[in-house]
TrEMBL record:
Keywords: Heme, Iron, Metal-binding, Oxidoreductase
Chain segments annotated as transmembrane: none
Cofactor: heme
Family: Belongs to the cytochrome P450 family.
Record has rRNA processing as a keyword: no
SUPFAM superfamilies attached to this UniProt entry: Cytochrome P450
Chain sites annotated for binding heme: 365
Signal peptide feature range: none
InterPro entries in the cross-refs: Cyt_P450 (IPR001128), Cyt_P450_E_grp-I (IPR002401), Cyt_P450_sf (IPR036396)
Protein name in UniProt: Cytochrome P450
Record flagged with keyword Oxidoreductase: yes
Domain of life: Eukaryota
Amino acid sequence: MTSSWYPQFTNLCDWYTHFLQKSPTRTIQIHVLGNTITANPKNVEYMLKTRFDNFPKGKNFSTILGDFLGRGIFNVDGDLWQFQRKMASLELRRNSIRSFAFEVMNTEIQNRLIPLLACAANNKDEILDLQDVFRRFSFDCICRFSFGLDPKCLELSLPISQFTISFDLASQLSAKRAMHVSSIVWKIKRFFNIGSERKLKKPIKLINILAQEVIRQRRKLGWTRHGGICINKSLFWLLAENPRLAERIRDEANEVLGLNQELTSCEQLRDLHYLQACVYESMRLYPPIQFDSKFCLEDDFLPDGTFVKKGTRVTYHPYAMGRMEEIWGVDCLEFKPERWINKDGVFSQENPFKYPVFQAGVRFCLGKEMALVELKSMTFSFLRRFHIELAHPSHHIPLFSPGLTASFRGGLPVFVREIKSTT
């Protein structure tokens, strides 16, 4: 087979997407990696709901991320997972927790994010890396909400945080473990303390030091908080490519809340249907987690007829699913928020097994609503004051760096421009 037969892609996920699109069942098996990969919604529902017990995260996954995530809710199965999920669910359902989360986010937006963007806008030649800004924003919010600590990463001076650097590095190096054909490779590296495993030890040590200090402080106070927060920088890349859509978000905000009025509660976001549609559409094309893996406990057959052998890895691929014509239509590659709006102009949910961005079924993301509130609040406040121009508009296709969550290689460099008030 000649090398010209293989398509050329700059992103691994696009390579997988190509072969999944070519497969009649939208499922492929890579035997050398012991991996079955699917973009078939029926298979996703089978794994995440119908036969949930037969497709846990598995010991392999827990081992790969064990040094980084320990025995937390993201990295365990069975009774330990059920207990942690129950505790987190009870916390996140409380109105007081949601109100506190909105207060934290809104304070960070008004006191740090907006002043930083205004400063960049005043210097017309300054290039700002929005990916870095959003990472800092999220990290400040997570630490203040979950731990009661304020790392102040989004101060105007953009201070260097050794913890955030360590966290990102640990995420990247842990993800690389899963890239090895066999786990024995990274385990040998760890045993001899060489290569990437040696690099991983330093950030893990720093993360553990902070975690132990947080636990000590929380025990003194006798309480703790939990939360899941994310920022999808792809939303802003897409809006920069489609400025008319940003204008429509502004128009909707003015109609619903009044001209230049600020958000005062997360309940106000429920009436911003087009903003919600833009958020969902951006994550359809660029999900924060591009694929997720489970391990098959016992021999099984997926609904499309694919045989899955006991002990093998099974991966569902939200990134590829967002590019399937039979799910989203012939315009599936187009950024089209209108596909989420019904005839009454109201945002309409899709089947979560066709759109497993927040997982689905038994293990759906508990932090989903809180993450959406953060993203919509920040987007709302940003777009009412500023618009952005890509610093390198010729780079039409984003390239991704390896990691547990999707990140742009080279960041998202932009120019920030202030919108003149119409009052």
